[in-house]
Amino acid sequence: MRIGFFSTKPYDKTSFIHANAALMHELIFFEAALSEQTCALACDVDAVCVFVNDQIDAHLLRCLAGRGVKVVALRCAGFNNVDLAAARALGIAVVRVPAYSPYAVAEHALALILTLNRHTHRAYNRVREGNFALNGLLGFDLHGKTVGIIGTGRIGAVFAHIMQGFGCTLIAYDQIPNSTCLQSGVRYVDQDTVLRESDVISLHCPLTPQTQHMIDASKIALMKPGVMLINTGRGALIDTSAVIDGLKVGHVGALGLDVYEQEEALFFEDHSNEIIQDDVLERLLTFPNVLITAHQGFFTREALAAIAETTLLNLSQIERHKACPNAL
Ligand code: NAI
Q1: Within-domain flag for 48
Q2: Given pLDDT bands bounded at 50, 70 and 90, which one contains residue 78?
Q3: Do 106 and 86 share a domain, yes or no?
Q4: Same-domain pairing of 310 and 283
Q5: 119, 234, 261, 309: which is the annotated catalytic residue?
Q6: Tens digit of each residue's pLDDT (9 = 90 or more) over 130-177
Q7: Is 119 a catalytic residue?
Q8: Which residues pair with 254 in a beta bridge?
Q9: Are residues 25 and 150 in the same domain?
Q10: How far does residue 104's CA lie from ligand 1's centre (Å)?
Q11: What is the pTM of this model?
Q12: Span 29-35, mean pLDDT?
């Protein structure tokens, strides 16, 4: 199959070329994101391969269909950026990588927690500048704390297991309780109880119309004063302005984000020589108790290899007119 890759980074190229060695697809890499303007690059390709911030709306899908594109292959798990109904109507198949390494994202959520709690990001800079003072670096024992999880699918379940290893009490909300979590002693409660009782809250559910801004001002008001809120799911799960208000009054004690509502305009690119115009993000970056990473939860060697392998196998299945379990 001839596949046009958009939003390609050097690491994507490496992992896909490696995974393609035995499959012999024809891979064409473009650095540009897929948009109405760049759609013309997808000439003579059977499939386009895109990432989390390529917005595949109905108009773009019509452009792709007009160019003969038959498949949109998402090299990610989330699919909130694709108009699935429009794709279906146009006869364009959409495939994704539902699971590649839940460990990668769950471990990154832990990295955010440990860094925020023990302030290692600040300690690193202090010590390098000859400042060995401990003021402002006080943390708490994770042992014995209540950790609340919203969404106990693949990633949430791994995260629960990790936090149990720290001696935390785990509570969770999910419409479909996970049997592994139940067996390991995670207590399922309603969403508001998770928010009320947790010292640390971690979001691991998908972004849907129902979950958009699930954490807003009214939900933040329910949380324990000083709560640590972690989001490695999708940016729009949180109303960012509301969380800023929570941080300003000290109700939110720490915020760790790997995803951000308006990340599409910034993430995965180097903007260090520009004046960043996003005042909400810039305000967030002024808080000493906020840690933001640029959607790197998935970014491990193991995950990249699995993403490339599954994406190409998805496309091989479709090429052979076989059922693809990862079709949406
Ligand atoms: P999954 O599909 O295995 O689990 C999602 C869980 O959320 C399911 O158990 C589902 O029942 C639950 N859920 C759905 N709606 C809910 C709601 N309103 N309230 C509570 N729970 C709800 O997905 P997986 O693999 O665990 O990934 C979770 C999310 O993590 C993805 O949707 C994606 O947005 C994000 N993600 C982030 C990455 C990163 O690099 N930061 C990488 C991969 C995924």
Answers
A1: yes
A2: confident
A3: no
A4: no
A5: 234
A6: 999 999 999 999 999 999 999 999 999 999 999 999 999 999 999 999
A7: no
A8: 228
A9: no
A10: 14
A11: 0.93
A12: 96
Distance CA 208, CA 64 (A): 24
Would you say residue 326 lies in a domain?
no
Q: Are residues 9 and 60 in the same domain?
A: yes
Share of the chain above pLDDT 70, in %: 100
Verify whether ligand 1 is closer than 6 Å to residue 177 (CB atom): no
State whether residue 131 is helix, strand or coil.
Answer: coil
Residue 328 located in a structural domain = no
**Do 124 and 255 share a domain, yes or no?**
yes
Full domain range(s) for residue 226:
102-292
Q: Which residues contact 136 (CB under 8 A, 6 or more apart)?
A: 119, 122, 288
Report, as an integer, the average pLDDT of 60-76: 96
The reply to whether 271 belongs to the active site is no
Q: Is the CB of 154 under 6 A from ligand 1?
A: yes
Residue ranges with strand state E in the chain: 2-5, 26-29, 47-50, 71-74, 93-95, 146-150, 169-173, 187-188, 200-203, 227-231, 252-257, 290-292
Q: Which residue in the list 25, 108, 204, 263 is annotated as catalytic?
A: 263
CB 186 within 8 A of CB 172: yes
Is 327 inside a domain boundary?
no
DSSP 215: B
**Which atom of ligand 1 is least distant from the CA of 210?**
18
Nearest CA to ligand 1 atom 16: 205
Active site residue 264: no
Whether the Cβ atoms of residue 256 and residue 229 lie closer than 8 Å to each other: yes
- List, for residues 220-235, the tens digit of each pLDDT value: 999 999 999 999 999 9
Contact 227, 202 (CB under 8 A): no
> What is the C-alpha to C-alpha distance for residues 172 and 193, in angstroms, rounded to an integer?
9
